[in-house]
Specification:
- By secondary structure, this protein is α+β, with helices and mostly antiparallel strands.
- It has one domain: tt1808, chain A.
- Helices cover 24% and strands 32% of the residues.
- The chain contains four helices and 13 strands.
- A six-stranded mixed beta sheet has the order 3-6-8-9-10-11. Strands 2-1-5-4-7 form a five-stranded mixed beta sheet, sandwiched between helices.
- The radius of gyration is 16 Å and the shape is globular.
Length: 182
């Protein structure tokens, strides 16, 4: 029987291993998985969302992008497309473990994983108040919001804007300069 190229790892082992790699990887239930690359369209939408998050969540909050890892559990480490953290972070750290908002911009290769497994994993973090899915085939946002009682509700935005943070997030702002811009 063949052994895997990378054995099953916990988060600390993974972070040490990945720091020595030339490419990005994620940790999925202890197994190392190559991080999917994106398109210019995906990058443009991610950039627009990150700019909007900076406006909507002013200091002491700060935004992060797809170069920052989010540790969800001992065997789950992901790269989100964008997010917000409102707690003090060590800027030399390799990961964030208390995000307030997580955004995933869908790619055709990771769509199912983002909509099901990552959604459930991120929603399990006590610090996460919003999980936002940004579609790239149609102008659509899915915003999962945690209530004060801990229950989750999903709002679908396919026109106009959504209340978020200190203001509103519009579809025009999210999709500006992309294949889905008006």
């Amino acid at each position: 029987m063949r052994e895997p190229i990378v054995p099953q790892l916990d988060a600390d082992e993974f972070l040490r291993w990945e720091a020595r790699q030339a490419s990005k990887f994620e940790l999925h239930h202890g197994f190392v998985v190559a991080f999917a690359g994106g398109t210019i369209n995906h990058d443009r939408i991610s950039f627009n969302v990150r700019k909007a998050l900076e406006r909507l969540f002013p200091p002491p909050c700060s935004t992060f992008g797809s170069d920052v890892k989010v540790q969800v559990a001992a065997d789950l480490v992901f790269y989100a497309d964008a997010g917000v953290v409102c707690t003090e972070v060590d800027v030399s750290s390799a990961f964030i473990d208390t995000p307030r908002v997580i955004v995933e911009v869908l790619s055709s290769s990771t769509r199912g994983y983002d909509l099901v497994e990552k959604r459930a994993a991120y929603r399990s973090l006590p610090s996460v108040e919003r999980y936002i899915v940004v579609h790239t085939q149609t102008r659509r946002l899915e915003i999962d919001a945690r209530s004060l009682g801990g229950r989750w509700a999903t709002e679908i935005i396919d026109e106009g804007e959504a209340l978020l943070g200190a203001g509103t997030l519009s579809l025009d702002e999210v999709y500006r300069g992309s294949s889905l811009s008006d």
